[in-house]
Specification:
heterodimer, A: 766 residues, alpha+beta, 4 domains, ten-stranded mixed sheet, 21 strands, 52% helix, B: 262 residues, alpha/beta, Rossmann fold, six-stranded mixed sheet, four-stranded antiparallel sheet
Chain lengths: 766, 262
């Protein structure tokens, strides 16, 4: 019978219980959804890496031979080593798509996963193409595929459509983050296909360590051993964490997990607050019933279990429904969007032990909270509980004793008292509003930050409208001629390796010639001039290496064994490329040859220029910006979740709160009515309090939202240094949106003032 | 502890409690309850306030007892102590040979569940349960409860079994509350101003019902009221004033409930 009573009580207080239900549902939905999604993605990618044997260590250098393979194999812990030649080129027939081309001997490490055609064999004829690239460009088995590597031209029959575990994520240019597979692809060929065997210089060693070794520490020991074994200064030994494909996917997964936790904490905190206030209200209003049950002979334990079961049943329903729905909806949706960005087979959500634990924990905490909030009514003997509660001891707060108090008008005094005496309820209101504005700020702030980053990259740091990429065939003469023709600026971009006392990192070096298209900004994003007396390092790289302005850093160009120890003259910030920048003269003072890799210009560039062997491609900055913005699907999805969550959160919390305070204030409102207050002025009194709480909530929410955005921006990845940017419209949306939600929900309740029957409300308290 | 053969202080054997007419022995009326110097004191700051002071009384099994007194006299305190709903500050409260003042919370709960039925002034039905469910609720705390429909029928409410309290009149609610109390087959039926919220005619019906419980079913009924007209229908009238027992009067020829008027 008590069970029936519970269901009927739940139905009677349905608004509040539904809101608790929704909050626990949303909390678990987002948490378990994102966790199942990220765990599913992690599991899928790990299975993929394992099955297709992703290499553990890459050694980059020049001219690797079979002797080098033998040297590497001798290192303890090394299982297998392969060499390959990894180059970039273009596919003329497909709008000069950017191609990564790998010439391989054997293919036991980073094995190709076959979708269609024949499997790769050593010394086989033909080419194997990446699946998305082939599909979006409509290339089929048996077609002849032509690829141009500088002056070399290779025609090959397409033998298979594949994916490779070391290219889960790949993009054409270092300054475009999101893949566009029509314009960028992967091609795999056997070394025997290389047209100039005499000059074939293998530039990569792929190292596979023994299966039982997986922790970072053992890997780094093997890395050190490999470096010692080779005793060459011109090689760079890197592991998976420094591999773009691996690291990008890894950080994406971690980010989703972190987002899931953040959301869940917000929602579950609100759900718990809801349980506290609702259960306290239910037990207070059922004081006589509790006394009756006690008098009838129900034991304290039975009554406790009865009231705790409210919170338990609701949170159990909410949490389980949330977990189930989360598993059902989020992973397919988000992983569906992964398809365009990441090439991982068998992506699906997976329920983890963590999800189950979190669900149980959420239910347990909710139950505990409802126990704590109803305990108060249960401790007295029935005779006491049957009597109306002793009047709440009302003390005057310090504020009420001050002189200022007397100057306040009645509605302010009334509201201030009400807020101070219902701290929990007020806190819940503030938190709800805060959450709402925080999520809105963060959501729209993501857009602002991305756009701000693009504007910065292509408007402030690089002001040219076109970028001509030169191939390695381009001699200095050609580059200088072209540069003067287009009135451009010559830039050399290359890879470097840094060593500090604490870390070792790979990055890029940008060497700029005279011109006015490349700019740098200091830590505070103020434009500064590149200093002539040393190198400038990006803030993020400096932090990763643990160095600062004025410190010396050891570095060398990848493929060159000459080490430098250079003073860092300047720290600057760059959103997308981490490394160093210096002027041509500084570079040449170190006795390096300046070999331009691109020309920046503001003049329009003839497309036919690409036909020159010396030019590998021409990039239009406006196009890059647009295509970049278009591919931000994932970010958009996150923003939608944030905005929907924000509005739901606001509505649910404020509605619940409205019901609570309305019920509690019915008698007071009726008294005011009897005293002759007009409904409209009572409404204003009630709305006043709501506006205070909303304003406080919004102010805290703005700060919290900025903090959340900051966390998202700074943890986004190792190569990106995003600046959290919140523009004025975002503030307006967030503040306006939150106000709208808050005021309209409250308006609904204050409208009920009219319906309160004074006579009815004031009688009938036993 | 309850329902078993026991020997009380006087060495008399008490017959099994769960038998319906526990009283039917030939040795005259049996003492069910005895108060020995019972005090109930509330501490209010420095000075103590006695709601009940040195109360002594005995109640026989099967009697209809009316406790009379003005408000604040201590009659509710007396009822609460009788029903194990509150604990005494000092003295002994013997129920069937056991001292309630030595009971733990759990034992008191069990005592209430097994032995006591309560009828409140404001009925105190669970508003979200129907009449039937309110009565059936007793099954949760006691094994040998009466069938809820029969209990409701005995108070003339068989037709109202599936109505919620809010759908019933005050008299119907009070009768439901009596049915709830009776469903437990309690040895002691406690009524706190059972007619207080009812009009005269309905009040009489309720009173009649309670008297029948005592006369026909031989249950001990203790009723608290400030209405002195009710003294006429009681076997024993206990008058309370200022926290003390003023008088205990036995009525040899109690009136029928239908005869009283107020």
């Amino acid at each position: 019978m008590l069970f029936r009573k519970m269901w009927r009580d739940l139905a009677k207080n349905k608004t509040q219980f539904i809101s608790i239900f929704l909050m626990s549902l949303l909390g678990m939905l987002v948490f378990c959804g994102l966790d199942a999604e990220s765990s599913g993605a992690a599991t899928a990618v790990n299975n993929y890496y394992e099955k297709y044997n992703l290499c553990d260590i890459w050694i980059a250098g020049a001219g690797f031979t079979d002797d080098d393979i033998r040297t590497a194999k001798k290192v303890t812990g090394v299982q297998n080593v392969e060499k390959r030649l990894s180059l970039t080129g273009t596919a003329e027939k497909y709008d000069n798509a950017y191609m990564y081309i790998n010439f391989m001997d054997t293919n036991e490490i980073n094995s190709l996963m076959l979708y269609d055609g024949e499997p790769y064999e050593d010394e086989a004829e033909g080419v194997w193409l990446e699946e998305w690239f082939a599909r979006t460009n409509n290339i089929h088995i048996g077609d002849t595929f032509t690829v141009k590597i500088d002056s070399l031209r290779i025609d090959a029959v397409v033998k298979g459509i594949v994916d490779a575990p070391d290219y889960v994520y790949y993009v054409s240019e270092s300054d475009v983050m999101y893949p566009n597979y029509t314009k960028c692809g992967l091609a795999f060929m056997s070394a025997s296909m290389y047209p100039d065997p005499a000059n074939m210089i293998y530039n990569q060693l792929l190292v596979d360590v023994r299966d039982e070794i997986s922790d970072d520490e053992s890997i780094s020991i093997i890395k050190d051993k490999l470096e010692n074994a080779f005793d060459r200064e011109d090689i760079a030994v890197t592991d998976r964490n420094q591999n773009l494909s691996f690291a990008t996917f890894d950080s994406e997964v971690k980010q989703h997990k972190a987002m899931g936790i953040m959301f869940a904490v917000v929602f579950l905190a609100i759900a718990l607050l809801g349980i506290v206030t609702t259960m306290a209200r239910v037990t207070t209003s059922q004081r006589t019933q509790i006394g009756t049950l006690k008098a009838l002979g129900f034991s304290k334990a039975t009554i406790t279990v009865h009231y705790v079961s409210y919170g338990f049943v609701i949170s159990t329903l909410g949490c389980i429904a949330g977990t189930w729905l989360g598993l059902l909806t989020l992973p397919p949706w988000i992983l569906g969007m992964f398809e365009g960005s990441y090439l991982v087979p068998d992506l699906k959500g997976r329920l983890t032990v963590l999800d189950v634990t979190a669900t149980i924990l959420a239910i347990a905490v909710s139950t505990l909270v409802s126990f704590l909030s109803c305990r108060k009514e249960l401790k007295d003997p029935p005779a006491v509980t049957l009597r109306p509660p002793a009047a709440k001891k009302i003390r005057h707060s310090a504020l009420e004793k001050s002189k200022l108090w007397l100057r306040l008008d009645f509605s302010t005094q009334w509201n201030l008292r009400d807020v101070l005496r219902n701290k929990m309820r007020s806190l819940m209101g503030i938190l709800g509003v805060m959450g709402c504005s925080m999520l809105l700020i963060c959501g729209f702030g993501c857009f602002d930050s991305i756009n701000g980053m693009l504007d910065k990259m292509y408007g402030e740091l690089m002001t040219a409208s076109n970028k001509i990429l030169l191939s390695s065939d381009a001699g200095s003469g050609y580059a200088y001629d072209l540069n003067s023709l287009y009135k451009g600026q010559l830039v050399m971009e290359t890879s470097v390796e840094f060593v500090s006392s604490t870390a070792k990192k790979s990055g890029s070096a940008t060497i700029i010639d005279r011109g006015n298209y490349v700019h740098i900004q200091d830590k505070n994003l103020k434009p500064v001039k590149l200093k002539k007396n040393g190198i400038a390092m990006t803030n993020k790289m400096a932090n990763l290496l643990g160095v600062g302005e004025g410190d010396y850093i050891r570095w060398h160009l990848v493929g060159d064994d000459k080490w430098q120890n250079t003073r860092i003259a300047q720290i600057y910030r760059d959103p997308s490329i981490q490394g160093i920048t210096m002027s041509r003269s500084v570079f040449e003072d170190m006795e390096y040859t300046f070999r331009p890799t691109s020309i920046l210009t503001n003049m329009s560039v003839d497309k036919s220029l690409v036909d020159d062997d010396e030019v590998s491609s021409v990039l239009n900055v406006a196009d890059m910006k647009t295509s970049f913005a278009e591919t931000l699907e994932m970010m958009n999805a996150m923003v939608y979740i944030l905005v929907v969550a924000a509005v739901l959160l606001g509505v649910v919390v404020l509605y619940n709160l409205g019901v609570l305070s309305f019920v509690e204030k019915t008698r007071e409102v009726a008294t005011l009515k009897v005293l002759g207050f007009k409904s409209s002025s009572i409404r204003n009194i009630l709305q006043k309090q709501n506006i205070w709480l909303t304003v406080i909530g919004i102010v805290i929410g703005l700060y919290a939202g900025w903090g959340m955005l900051y966390v998202i921006c700074t943890t986004v990845s190792e190569t990106l240094d995003m600046f959290p940017i919140i523009k004025l419209p975002t503030y307006l949306y967030a503040i306006g949106g939150t106000f709208l939600v808050s005021v309209s929900v409250n308006f609904m309740f204050s409208g009920k003032v009219k319906t309160i029957d004074m006579v009815d409300a004031l009688k009938g308290v036993e | 502890m309850f329902g078993k053969k026991k020997t009380d202080d006087t060495g008399l054997e008490i017959i099994d409690l769960n038998e319906d007419n526990a009283l039917s022995n030939d040795n005259g009326p049996k003492v069910l309850i005895e108060f020995k110097d019972v005090c109930k004191k509330y501490s209010q700051g420095e000075h103590d306030f006695y709601a009940l002071k040195d109360a002594n009384l005995t109640i026989n099994e099967g009697e209809m007892v009316v406790i009379l007194g003005p408000s604040g006299a201590g009659k509710s305190t007396l009822l609460n102590l009788l029903g194990g709903m509150d604990s005494a500050s000092s003295g002994q409260i013997m129920f069937d040979g056991d001292d309630l003042t030595t009971y733990s919370d759990n034992q008191l709960t069990k005592y209430r569940a097994q032995n006591v039925g309560v009828v409140f002034q404001f009925y105190n039905l669970i508003p979200t349960l129907t009449a039937y469910e309110n009565v059936a609720l007793m099954k949760d705390i006691k094994d040998d409860t009466a069938d809820p429909i029969e209990a409701l029928a005995s108070v003339g409410l068989a037709d109202h079994a599936h109505q919620f309290p809010s759908q019933m009149s005050g008299g119907e609610q009070q009768r439901t509350s009596i049915a709830r109390a009776l469903a437990k087959n309690p040895r002691l039926l406690l009524c706190d101003e059972p007619t207080g919220a009812l009009d005269t005619d309905t009040g009489k019906e309720v009173l009649k019902l309670l008297q029948d419980m005592s006369r026909e079913k031989k249950r001990t009924v203790v009723m608290v009221t400030h209405n002195s007209f009710f003294a006429d229908i009681a076997d024993t009238v206990i008058r309370v004033k200022n926290g003390g027992i003023q008088s205990v009067v036995h009525n040899d020829n109690p009136k029928d409930a239908s005869e009283v008027s107020w």
